[in-house]
């Protein structure tokens, strides 16, 4: 897919105020600093679409961007940043939960995982929440340029083992990306395009 237009639509903390337009929606979420803003900018080819975080935990809103007038890309708040106060965390969790439980046009959630790290409890628990609620997701392993290919493959293999030896029967679709050298850009965008095409046909 070629991204011709990517426009900011609205930011809010209330799922009922998200755009009413029935476009397919793809959400991006992960721990603060995982590289979400950089990834969104890389995918859309716009350097400043999502704000890269000088201060993690800053962007605590649901951000809608309309892509090619065809689908919504949703930039969700990063989770798990220790310095966000408990009250903020609680509010964040409830509006994010509401978003996932109520947003009918949400087609797929991309859960971003730092490819350098061992599986983290907070990410595994978040995916468990998605699974329990029947919310489809894929994994994006970020910052792939920071590893050698064999290290990257080993980490992904380890992640797969961790998931399939616990709750999951199989690994969800996954991608390895780098915002620095655009690895994975075509794969992620083509994946979205394929789903959009299927939705159009049905
Ligand atoms: P966010 O908090 O998840 O939105 O993360 P950011 O996009 O702000 O990135 C956090 C930090 O990681 C920044 O210093 C980025 O420059 C860096 N970063 C993000 N993606 C990549 C990547 O693919 N490769 C490298 N080498 N650094 C990255």
Question: How would you describe this protein?
Answer:
The structure is a single chain. This protein has 202 residues and is an alpha/beta fold. The chain has one domain (6-201): 3-Layer(aba) Sandwich (Rossmann fold). The protein is built from five helices and seven strands. It has helices at 36-44, 86-102, 121-132, 149-164, 185-201; strands at 6-12, 24-30, 62-67, 71-75, 106-114, 137-142, 174-176. The protein has a seven-stranded mixed β-sheet, with helices on both faces. Strand 5, helix 3 (121-132) and strand 6 (137-142) form a beta-alpha-beta unit. Bound molecules: guanosine-5'-diphosphate. Guanosine-5'-diphosphate binds next to helix 1. The site of guanosine-5'-diphosphate has 18 residues, from helix 1.
Q: What would a concise description of this structure say?
A:
The chain is of the alpha/beta class. Helices cover 35% and strands 21% of the residues.
CATH class: Alpha Beta
Q: What distance separates the N and C termini?
A: 20 Å
User: What's the order of the H and E elements?
Assistant: EEHEEHEHEHEH
User: What is the CATH architecture term?
Assistant: 3-Layer(aba) Sandwich
Strands of the largest sheet, in order across it? 1-3-4-2-5-6-7
Number of helix segments?
5
CATH topology-level name: Rossmann fold
Radius of gyration: 16 Å
Please summarize the sheet with the most strands.
Answer: 7 strands, mixed
Give the fraction of residues assigned to helices: 25-40%
Low-confidence sequence ranges: none
Count of domain modules = 1
Structural classification: alpha/beta
- At the fourth level of CATH, the homologous superfamily is P-loop containing nucleotide triphosphate hydrolases
Overall spatial form: globular
The count of β-strands is: 7
Mean pLDDT figure: 91
Distinct bound molecules:
guanosine-5'-diphosphate
What share of the residues does DSSP label as strand, in percent? Answer: 15-25%
């Amino acid at each position: 897919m070629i991204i011709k237009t990517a426009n900011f639509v609205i930011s809010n903390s209330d799922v009922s105020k998200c755009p009413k337009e029935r476009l397919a929606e793809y959400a991006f979420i992960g721990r603060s600093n995982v590289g979400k803003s950089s990834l969104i900018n890389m995918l859309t080819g716009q350097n400043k679409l999502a704000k890269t975080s000088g201060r993690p935990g800053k962007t605590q809103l649901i951000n809608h961007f309309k892509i090619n007038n065809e689908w919504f890309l949703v930039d969700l708040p990063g989770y798990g940043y220790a310095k966000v106060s408990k009250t903020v965390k609680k509010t964040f969790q409830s509006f994010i939960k509401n978003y996932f439980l109520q947003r009918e046009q949400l087609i797929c959630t991309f859960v971003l995982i730092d490819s350098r790290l061992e599986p983290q409890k907070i990410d595994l628990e978040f995916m468990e929440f998605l699974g329990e609620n029947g919310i489809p997701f894929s994994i994006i392993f970020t910052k792939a340029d920071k590893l050698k290919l064999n290290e990257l493959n080993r980490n992904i293999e380890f992640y797969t083992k961790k998931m399939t030896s616990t709750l999951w029967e199989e690994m969800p679709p996954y991608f390895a990306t780098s915002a620095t050298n655009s690895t994975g850009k075509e794969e992620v965008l083509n994946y979205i395009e394929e789903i959009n095409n299927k939705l159009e046909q049905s």
